[in-house]
Amino acid sequence: MSIKFYAWWATRSNAVLTDALESIINIVAGAFALFSLIIAAKPKDLNHPYGHGKIEFISVGFEGALIALAGIGMICKGGYNFFFPQTIHQLDLGIWLTGLTGVVNFAMGWWLEKRGKKDHSVTLTGSGKHLQTDGYSSLGLLLGLALVWLTNLYVLDNILAIIFGMIILFTGYNLLRKSLAGIMDEADYQLITRLVEVMDRERQDNWIDIHNFRVIQYGASLHIDCHMTLPWYFDNRQSHQEIKVLEKLIEENCSAPVELFIHIDACTTEACRICQKQDCNVRASPTETRLPWTIDNIMENMPHKV
């Protein structure tokens, strides 16, 4: 941040100022992200039975809001100097300093995103993507400053400030969108589709049906619940064994820690038409089809029928 503000002081470039202002956001958002990670790492307790991981989404939203405000400020500053221009100088120094900070930001962002994916942290991943965006922005800014330096068309500096302000505003919007999605428990259709494909491919004959399948993210952990239809004559021990098999299957195909709550339903005579269990002595009707599980029918809160 210090390097960027020195570059702005030396050049008086609005485009460089936009880059410097975003560094303030990086520091404030980074401090809040650190605080949220400390809270999210706390174990579950009586007041937070699902853990403290939701605070990571608040952290991402806070960062997104700050970034969006910075983008709006950059756009306004660039527009203001269309009417009240200011002198720009030492652009060659600004180019070198901008290039240096861009490389540093991108390297930090790459490492943070890699570590965030490893630790299943939306805060680290979000901060990493933000810093990588800074790196790309610095590259574009670098090319723009070089163009201003070569052409002496200083009005391009204001245009660059507005363009990068819009890019940063869009980045802030995406982070806000992700934050609200996590707080509102929006379904992760990509993850659910992958899990459903695995369950459908590896389904056991005793698993007559799975429905009301839901996945909620709490920080680095996933909470999954569903209804599972088993033969009505299974005792508790047999039902529990089928649940453990399904739990193991999901855990093996999910990189994040998983907590599963599974409700058992007893089969009815209507289920015989889709039941694949052939060694059933109480079957009311023959099997008619193998109903595939898809993201469209497995999330419905009702048993499947032909």
In terms of topology, how is this protein built?
Layout: H1 2-11, H2 14-40, H3 55-83, H4 91-119, H5 122-151, H6 155-183, H7 189-202, E1 209-218, E2 221-230, H8 236-252, E3 258-266, H9 295-298
Parallel strand pairs: 2-3
Antiparallel strand pairs: 1-2
Helix pairs in contact: 1-2, 1-4, 2-3, 2-5, 2-6, 3-5, 3-6, 4-5, 5-6
Structure description:
This protein is mainly α. The protein folds into two domains: 2-183, Alpha-lytic protease prodomain-like (Up-down Bundle), CATH 1.20.1510.10; 189-298, Alpha-Beta Plaits (2-Layer Sandwich), CATH 3.30.70.1350. The protein has helices at 2-11, 14-40, 55-83, 91-119, 122-151, 155-183, 189-202, 236-252, 295-298; strands at residues 209-218, 221-230, 258-266. Strands 1-2-3 form a three-stranded mixed sheet, covered by helices on one side. Helix 3 (55-83) packs parallel to helix 5 (122-151) and helix 4 (91-119) packs antiparallel against helix 5 (122-151). The longest helix is centred in the middle third of the chain and has 30 residues, at 122-151.
Identify the notable features of this structure and list them briefly.
Alpha-Beta Plaits, single chain, 62% helix, elongated, three-stranded mixed sheet, 306 residues, 2 domains, Alpha-lytic protease prodomain-like
